[in-house]
Amino acid sequence: MRWGRYLPRALWGSGLRGALQSADERIPFLIHWSWPLKGKLPLGLPRAFVRHRGSSAGSSPTSRSRGKFFQGISASEAVERHRRNLAEWFSRLPREERQFGPTFALDTVHVDPVIRESTPDELLRPPAQLALEHQHPTAGLPPLSLSQLFDPDACGRRVQTVVLYGTVGTGKSTLVRKMVLDWCYGRLPAFELLVPFSCEDLSSLGSAPASLCQLVAQRYTSLKEILPLMAAAGSRLLFVLHGLERLNLDFRLAGTGLCSDPEKPEAPAAIIVNLLRKYMLPEASILVTTRPSAVGRIPSKYVGRYGEICGFSDTNLQKLYFQLRLNQPDCGTGAGGAGISATLAQRDSLVEMLSRNLEGHHQIAAACFLPSYCWLVCATLHFLHAPTPPGQTLTSIYTSFLRLNFSGETLDSTDPSNLSLMAYAARTMGKLAYEGVSSRKTYFSEDDVRGCLEAGLNTEGEFQLLHVFRRDALRFFLAPCVEPGHRGTFVFTVPAMQEYLAALYIVLGLRKTTLQRVGKEVAELVGRVGEDVSLVLGIVAKLLPLRALPLLFNLLKVVPRVFGRVVGKSREAVAQAMVLEMFREEDYYNDDVLDQMGASILGVEGPRRHPDEPPEDEVFELFPMFMGGLLSAQNRAVLAQLGCPIKTLDALENAQAIKKKLGKLGRQVLPPSELLDHLFFHYEFQNQRFSAEVLSSLRQLNLAGVRMTPVKCTVVAAVLGSGRHALDEVNLASCQLDPAGLHTLMPVFLRARKLGLQLNSLGPEACSVLRDLLLHDQCQITTLRMFPVASQG
Do the record's keywords include ATP-binding (predicted)? Predict the structure, then answer.
């Protein structure tokens, strides 16, 4: 949980800063809580779907159940202000959600992941070797809903502390968000006051002493006046501690002394320990969320109930999520209302195709077990089928997806290295992904996975980090293969993630040969000696003749130069491999990469390949697209937040190597689908100067037969619309163009001398667009074909 990291301290009260900040300044505080990725969305039809009474913007928090502890005008008003503040904070939409339309509200698309009650014995049981298998709910333990978390246990004992745990992407953050909003809108009458804490925020305070009352007052100023009443609230006071893995808790008396006074300053970790011990505010209720590796930090004697968040283990929940999100009225409208909204029939068609694919293609259902990937599927479909917001690329969708799951996450808070979880994944999962792309395979044995995870491990600390990664995040990237003939192997959760991680592995410079690793160490050593070369020469001059000194001095300069050449050759080799992958002749007559991606999500209509037929060669055409996209400034900035920085100099040198190879191979005449893939690479790269230089020799744009969807029109217009040289011919025959596509492609048409639009069924609406085109003062068109050429004879 990262909201505390970005929340301005002034918002928490005058104890830290003076004036309150504006709502816009508070938005970063809400990004993680509002985000549907890490949990995906709350309650529903009958159990899984709940529609707020209007969206959070139109509804007002209510206090249906004011209890005896907070009676009185001032206390009631304080609680009501607290409800309104929480409702506002937790209802904010992050930027990535605004792509779904200006009136989109998460309140209307909540689908709860499955919560399975577990026991301490299960937690002590050794996990599976790779921790990839999903355990289905145990018989006799039905799934829990949010309203049942604090019900008495099987023995009738009162439950005061509940620990919910789940791997990355299963739904912890959204469950917390849902519970807070439910309380704000009066749907949790059992609690009169709810106080959420981010453990990341508390850990950032270090060991600086502060009392529980200070921590509450600094974050929720409206509660200052009722702090003395907290102790009397008993079980009707609920503390929510989100992301416990960020805190280092010590329950030993020698490490954390007993403290029962909420007004006594202590280290934040000590306050949390005493709350959980039930030594401070012993009657209060506590909800804890954490990753599996940190569950054991709380002794089981202090926990009344454990709940494992199992994601969307029921495909009906997946279908419900897709139906609610893809059927939003604004789902087909571009940013700011631009573009043409998708019709209800088009949205229903998408949902129907996706549902059929979930039923027939079990691997995508296995991927959507994680609610995070359900969001990624919806975001990808929206990118492919709706007008694209300016600057949004496929790479940026995947990079934002990872940021909203991993930003601020360290692998293990108890490890002094403070290693970023995403950086560890890039090194291990990226290696596996790249080896798969290099050997053209997507199925991996257990030995393959173990080899990449355990490569180079030597110390106990490194093995401990691997153990944490296996338990908390490995299932996010890899899934057991459920396809016939490949049982017992593993695949990346979605195929495009393999290509993204392989590209990330390369652009981060993690792929190094032995010569490079040794050369770098030698170069650094020689460089340190060279810094004080006068001292070295002064010593050696006493031992060697003067004519030997120039030789020694040149040797000191040669080693770093040789290493630089080795690195340069490596970059050229990577660029060569990327360009060859982009222009493979075997892929010349398959669909373009955007259609391939849509087919992988929605399924392929028509007969399927017989299981006994030899498998087709794997295609990795997204790999070069992601490489270009990751070198863009926008994605590099986001990667830096993930702990995976790409230096500007490295990005420039990689771009130069790619441009050199593209200049040689990019001049050849390409089939229409491959030409579109080439343009899509430039679109992902988002560098107009680079694209203008590489595409300066392009004179004919032949995309005949390519289905020109809104995103493809945007790609072509963005890459070629700003060019200066004329295009001899633009052929868009049989492209299923519509008037909106014509309007998007107007900048490209203005550069064309010959324009072919045959067999597109444009209709009368296109007449005004073509009239504006032909009357434009920059129009260069001399030939316009709108109808098929009549056959001779």
Answer: yes
Q: Of 239, 269, 236, 211, which is closest to residue 15 (Cα–Cα)?
A: 211
Angle between helices 315-326 and 371-385 (to 10 degrees): 40
* Burial (CB count <10 Å: 0-12, 13-18, 19+), residue 512: middle
8 A C-beta contact, residue 496 and residue 523: no
pLDDT in tens, 4-63: 433 333 333 333 333 333 333 333 333 334 333 333 333 333 333 333 333 343 445 654
Q: Give which of 672, 727, 673 is closest to 695, Cα–Cα.
A: 727
* DSSP secondary structure string for all residues of 497-546: HHHHHHHHHHHTT----HHHHHHHHHHHHHHHHHHTHHHHHHHHTTTS-G
In three-state form (DSSP H/G/I as H, E/B as E, the rest C), the secondary structure along 127-164 is CCCCCCCCCCCCCCCCEECHHHCCCCCCCCCCCCEEEE
Cα–Cα dist 252/108, whole Å: 45
Asked if residue 265 has pLDDT above 90, the reply is yes
Condensed to tens digits (0 to 9), the pLDDT of residues 654-664 reads: 888 888 878 76
Give residue 793's pLDDT.
Answer: 41
- How far is residue 70's CA from residue 83's CA, in Å, rounded to a whole number? 13
Q: How far apart are CA 102 and CA 329, in angstroms?
A: 10
- Cα–Cα distance, 262 to 253 (Å, whole number): 18
d(CA 767, CA 746): 13
pTM of the predicted protein model: 0.82
708-731 pLDDT, tens digit each: 999 999 999 999 988 778 899 999
Cα gap 670→590, rounded to integer Å: 12
Q: Smallest Cα–Cα separation from 114: which of 46, 166, 73, 79?
A: 166
50/44 Cα distance (integer angstroms): 5
Q: Which long-range contacts (CB under 8 A, 24 or more apart) does 135-139 make?
A: 136/313, 137/310, 137/313
As a whole number of Å, the CA-based R_g of the chain is 30
- Compute the mean pLDDT over every residue in the chain, rounded to the nearest whole number: 79
For 163-191, write each residue's pLDDT tens digit. 999 999 998 988 898 899 999 999 899 99
**Which secondary structure element, helix H or strand E, spans residue 473, and what is its range?**
none
- Residue 309, φ and ψ in degrees, nearest 5: -85, 115
Q: How far apart are CA 650 and CA 636, in angstroms?
A: 11
Q: Which residue has the tokens 């959600």?
A: 97
What is the per-residue pLDDT across 553-612, written as a single tens digit (0 to 9) for each? 555 455 454 444 444 555 666 676 677 667 666 655 678 899 989 888 887 654 444 444
Torsion of CA 346, 347, 351, 354, to 10 degrees: 60
| Joined tokens for residue 121 | 């014995």
Alpha-carbon distance values, 373 to 112, 369, 410 (Å): 14, 8, 21
